[in-house]
From TrEMBL:
SUPFAM superfamilies linked: Mitochondrial carrier
The name this protein goes by in its record: Periplasmic ligand-binding sensor domain protein
Native source species: Legionella micdadei
Main location group: membrane
Segments of skewed composition (Polar residues): 1-28
Disordered: region residues: 1-29, 326-367
Biased composition (Low complexity): 349-361
This protein's UniProt keywords: Membrane, Transmembrane
One annotated Gene Ontology cellular component of this protein: membrane
Subcellular location: Membrane
Amino acid sequence: MKTRVDQNPSTKSESASQSTPTPKSMPTSGYKLSKPLWEALNFLFVTGVTCGGVVIFQSPLKTVLTNLTIDGTVLPKYPLTSIGTFGFFRALYAGTSASFAGSAARTAYVTAAKNNKPIEVKESTPHEEKLSGLNLNKAGYVMSAAFGDYVVTQIPKSLSQLRKIPNLLPSGFKWYTRNNLYQLWTGGFPSEYFAGFANFGALCVLEEELAKRLPIEDEKIRHLLSGALTGVGAGVISYPFALLRDYTLVHANVTNGQLRIDSTATILKKLAAAYLENPKEAGLAFLANAAKQVPIRAILTGGVFSIVASVGATLGNAPLSKIIPERFHPSKTNPQGFFYNRKTTGDGETPSSQQQEVESPSPTPKQ
């Protein structure tokens, strides 16, 4: 009689281990930012740094210019002891939230406009720049870009300046009603557009051309200086238009929550009547006001241009590469989606191309 011999327990365990796959280690975290998201984050970072610097520098000077336009004084007519130091700086930076929104919108718009110029405007040699066709292309580019800048920034810019005028806007003023939005958007349109045309042309065309010609090797210093020089020139050239716009806004009024801003034609009629009534006094007042405002506007525009022109050169195209760890930087091979997971092996390593070829053998030809 045959006796059944039991198998070796070790043999059973070996066969069981062969039939049951060993669980692999979980893949390591391999999430990377996609290229579109990476570019968007870098763009927002540069925009935030730029508009923050612009607002800190610009807001108090805008307050000074507003008061000069109202009554020829540098600061509002109340003593510092009555409002305290905090109140003084609060008055100096009045309308900063709207100014920051407008500055952010304008910085994003200007950056996009400068980086997406028509090829005829962006690439031209000194010889080609003499051709009338290219000059017309540059003029058309600046005109359309200045109008786009007006559309994007006019409302927050006007609201910021109106908030700097003492006792104009009542508590709880609703700027977002239909009438108030229309008044904010159309108030001082012609003068604002022509001032923007001068500023935009200087920033987006002349600044880069001047930077190419300055005998300075350091790109940051070169753009800082070229921005300051073109900004000073733009501030002087655009002064009559900027003054007319400010004069239009400081004569606005609010009745029952409804904002009213006179048209540019109405303001020009009032100025003409005042000049005809007493030409000498009106002329002297204009010159005295210009002597105060032109240097401040030149410093303001030059400083803003320097900030805008130099921040980009200083931070570069990918400033976040120095902040975000490299393992999260976008891949050059698989940029699809905002996030994606790398293929990982059981050891948490990305397989090489040779390993992938071994794992995916070519099909056997039919016989």
